[in-house]
Every structure is written in structure tokens, then in C-alpha cells.
Amino acid sequence: MIDQKTLAYINLYGILGALENLCELVPEAGELLTNKKPLTIGFDVKGGPAASITFYNGRCKMTDGCGKCDVKLPFGSPEKFNGLIDGTTTPIPSKGYLHIGFLLKSFTALTDLLSKYLQPSEEDLKDPDFFNISTTLTLYVVGVALAQVANQDEIGKFSASNTPDGSVMLDIKGGPAVELVIKNHHFICLKKRPEKYRASMTFVDVETANALFNGTINALAALGVGKVEMHGMSNMLDNVNRILDRVSLYLA
Amino acid sequence: MSKAKEKTEYPCYTTTKSDEWYARAAEVIPAGVYGHLGPAEGQFIPVNRWPRFSDRAKGSYFWDVDGNRYIDYMCAYGPNVLGYGDPDVDAAAIKQIELGNCTTSPNKIMVECAELLVDTVASADWAFFCKNGNDATQGAILTARAHTHRKKLIFFKGFYHGVSPTVQKIDYPGVTPEDVANNLYTAWDDIEGFKRIVEENKGEIAALIAQPYDHGNFYDNKFPAEGFWQEVRKICTENEILIIVDDVRTGFRLDLAGSDHYFGFEADLICFCKALANGYNMSAFCGKEFLKGAASGLSYTGSYWMSAVPFAACIACINKMKEINAPALFKELGTEFTEGLKAAAAENGFDLVVSGAPSLFYLRIANDDSLMIHQDWIAECVNRGLFLASHHNHFINASLTHDDIKESIAIAEDAFRATRKLHPEIG
């Protein structure tokens, strides 16, 4: 069973949060934002998360809350915000009508480009560069989604309550990594390779990572055949794996 | 001086055939080997340094499909209590095979087995037989609920009481919130927390189900504080809450009369499995007289639960454990081994923490806070023929010899040296 509030957190911090990385990794994304004045869009979800994305000089950055934004998009419920992500809701700004053009053009083009990388076609994946960027972005989305499920979802919170403090690294061999920082059973995902960690789960190749993220293979089975390597505090990984199982439910 | 004592270097094994068998297994068996004997739950880190399938076993050893011999301190996770292929137990089982095993009318040996358990276990007035530890814990829970007409159960955090949905956790695959809706959790050895949970659920709690001491995985095992069990017993009696002791793992390795007897209190229901019959498949839960009626009324049975061969093996096993005073022997052997390991660790710059009962010792290298050094050392041990686990308590069996222990410590020392090379930060 999916909790709409948890999904809203995933959609805001995980999916829209990946726009930051899209702009860094895909030149086409950065080009959509060049020669434009800095602009901040706020997403305010009633009974859910609130965050802003500032677009500037070919880049963008997400910050918590939407107190200082040029365009404010209010959503009456997590369900309505989730509708924005799956394309069933058209948002109406409560502030910043003058910037509606950016919303309709640049922002829509950016999110379409993000969808292309997060829901890739088989044809696109044949390009090694596209494949690597797609996997990197997927790892980032999964890492952030994992933290949201740990902090918001009722069953995820149970797993988090059994997870000791410390950092867990999720990485793809020879590729990107994320760090899950756990303190007092609260999870934060940092999109970087940690210097020090108490446990690690390494996917030996991007295909394995993709299969695990979309739930087509199981981590325990993958471990047995050497496709996933684990090291360190297994009780942290045990709980992270249980949360990861639920992430695939939300991202399906 | 024995050869084992002279040898200081142990070459690493190859496990090519294990790899091949595992690849075959993964095609037709979920996860290749699921559960605690498999690479995931068994914490085979890294997987290719572990045997995945055995070929044969005898005494304290098993040989894998590559022909490598292992001195085994996991004992099939407990059932190997007298030694693999113990001649007395096997002779009793073979004799019973000739007389009949799984029959329409249960063999009379079932009665003799129950009588022996009642005579042996201090808190047992009757015995109810089944197959696995999970059957025993579930049978005890059903009995407690049937007797009290209450639904809630108290668990100490870090528990493991089998695999039925009731005793799993809400985040486990296939378990629903409804399956565990009547479960209450409190910390081990926290009497105030225990009192609070009893007060908050007055008149609703059927039973406390607990291991006699905290032998959970991934952390140092903990004995109860002085008087803990006596206080818990008092609170439970006052509130008509039954105490179910899960002695599946610890049973007969601490005390032949039951681990409640060892810690000086009386369980209402007590569950056994692993050490009952030296690997022959049976389990039992035993209880006080006042619960016999409730147990009699259960709709609880199985096709093989009254098979006679395991009863014959159980009788031979319990009698032999009594004859050799098995708990004292396990304590002596476990202490000798763990003291030797600690000395070898210190000699090589490792801080090896040993916890739990010597017969069920738990190991942890405390040089880092991630278990990574510990896992690397365990892998070096296993890959040289000393089968230990990085996450779970171990088991002593009665066939273990002093020479086996000497050889085990020599392998462990070689593994410490190899681990130091992997971790120059140890110095």
C-alpha cells in the first residue's frame, strides 16, 4: 500500500530534486536555463513537503521551504501534488503569474528531459553515455526516495527505528555512489561517495542496480550470485534493504 | 607435540565446485539457498570464500563439494550437539527405521520420549511434539492464547522466535500489519519498560515470549541482570501473563533441565528443537500441568510430527547428553576455545570481544565500529577451514576435541595475520 504523503516527499525531493543533477550531467538541460534571470519556484504541499528550486545560470538548486520564491505553486493535498508528477494535475500559481512562460516552457522541457533519463527507452539505453547518466540519476532518485520512505512511510519508519546510527554507502562499481546518513533513526541522502561509512552495498554493474531499483531482482538472490556485495554493519543493510523493497513500490 | 600445534600456515581453499552447484541451485531454488544456511542470511562476505554445499560430515567436521574440510562451530546452527553421525544416536534411529517410522498409529516410543522430556526438563509436565523450532513457538503461543483468551504478546527487542507471520516483523516481506497487530515490544533487561507495557495493556496480554538471554544477531550477547527473570516472573504471575521460554537455540547447551532452570525461574511453556535429537527432525514444546487442557484442544498437527525415528534419536541423544554431562563439557570446550581465540587476537593487535555462554559464544572484533574487520577475519578463517559466523552466536558440540581446538586457534591466528595485511591501520 502506497502512502500519498510519502509519495509527495519522494516526488518533490527525489524526482524534482534530481533536476539539480540533470543540469550538471546533461548539457542540454543546462542550455535550457542559460541567458535567463534567476528564478525560484516554490512547491507548497498542504499536509506534505514544501521546497523551492532556484534556476540560475544553467544550474538549479533545491532548498527547503518556499518563503522566498518568485513563483509559488500551492497544492491542496499530497495527492494533488503527486498529480503534477504523473501529469494529471495542472498547477495554478498563487504568486508569480508573470513567470508562467518559464513554467510552461523551460520548466516543462526540463522535467520532460528528466523523464527521458528516469524512464528511458531501450533505444536510448544503447548509448553508453546516456546509460551512465540515466543510472546515476536513478541511483540519486532511489537514494533520496529511500530516505523519504524511512522518514515518512509507516512501515519504513519501523525499519528505520531498527537501524543504528552511521553512514551507509550505496554504490555502483566504478560508478556513482550515495551516502545515507542515519541519526536517531532519521535518514538523509547525500549524493556523493562517503569518505567513511559503517556499511556498504555495492552493485557490481549498472544492470544489476537498475534491476534492483525496479524490483525485477531481489537483493538477497543477487548477493548469492555475486551481483551485489555487502560489507560492514549487516543490521544497517538489512533494514536498508527492507526500505529499498518499499522504494520500488513507490517508484513503480 | 601434535602436528596441528606445529602448523602455522593454512592455505586458502578454492570453492569452484561450490560456485558451480550454486549456479545450478539459483536456477531452480529461490535465492539458491534461502534462509540461514544461505549466503545472504548466512552473511557470506564475500560469497566466494564460503562453501555453499557440503558433501559429507562426521563429528566436528564437514567437507564441502570441493573436498575442503571445515572444523564446524556452527553445528548446522545448533542441531549437531553430539557430533555429526553420532554412533549411539544413529544406531537408535536405524533400529527404529526397521520397526517403523511414519505410521498410522504413532509408535509407542513417542510416549517414552515424552516421559524422558518430562523427567529431564524442570518445568515440563507434558510434551507436545512437532518438527521445527517455529512449530514449537507457534504451538506455545496458541496454547497461551487458548488458555488466557487474550490476544497480545510481549517480545523483547532483538528477538527471533521463528518464521510464522505472528513472530516476524511488520517490515518483513509478506507480513501484513494485521499479522503483528497484537505484538508489544520492549527492551531486553529493562524491568521498568516491562512493567510499563504490562500496565498499559492490563488484562490483554496472553504471554511474554523470550529467549533466556539476549542472543540476538549482530551485537554482543547479553545475560540478564541479577534478579531480572525473578522480577519478570513475579509481574507475569500477578497479571496472569504466561511466560514462554524459547529454548530452541539454547536448550540443553546451558542446562539439561532447561534454560529457565539455569537462570532460576520457572517457565509456563518452554520450546525445544535444535539439540533434541542430534539432527533428526523434531521439536517440542513442554508445559505446566494447568496448560495441558489448552494444548489438548489445539487444532495443531502435521504429517510427520509423530514420526518415530526422531523420537528414538531424541531418547538416545538426551540420555547421552546426561551421561557425559553435556552442558559442563560444552562450557569447558567453549571456554578453552574462546580464551585461546582472545589470546591469539591480542597477540596480533585485535580486540576480540567474546560474549554469551561459552557453549554458545558470540564473537566481535571491536577494532572498528563497522564489523568490516571482523567480517574480513571470519572470511579468512572460513576460507582456511575454520567455520565461524560473523553475525550469529556459535555452537559447541560434544565430539569437539582438544586437538580440534588447538588446530582451530592455529587457523584463527593465521587468519589474524592475513587480516592485518588487509588492514594496515591496525598497526
The portion of residues forming beta strands of chain A comes to 15-25%
CATH superfamily assignment of the largest domain in chain B? Type I PLP-dependent aspartate aminotransferase-like (Major domain)
Query: What does the average pLDDT of chain A come to?
Result: 93
- What is the approximate shape of chain B? globular
How does the major sheet of chain A shape up?
5 strands, mixed
* Adjacency order of strands in the biggest sheet of chain A: 7-6-5-8-9
Number of helices of chain B: 13
The proportion of residues in beta strands of chain B is 5-15%
Radius of gyration of chain B: 22 Å
Known CATH architecture of the largest domain in chain A: 2-Layer Sandwich
Number of helices of chain A: 11
Overall tally of structural domains of chain A: 2
The tally of domains of chain B stands at: 2
- Overall structural class of chain A, as computed from helix and strand content, comes to alpha+beta
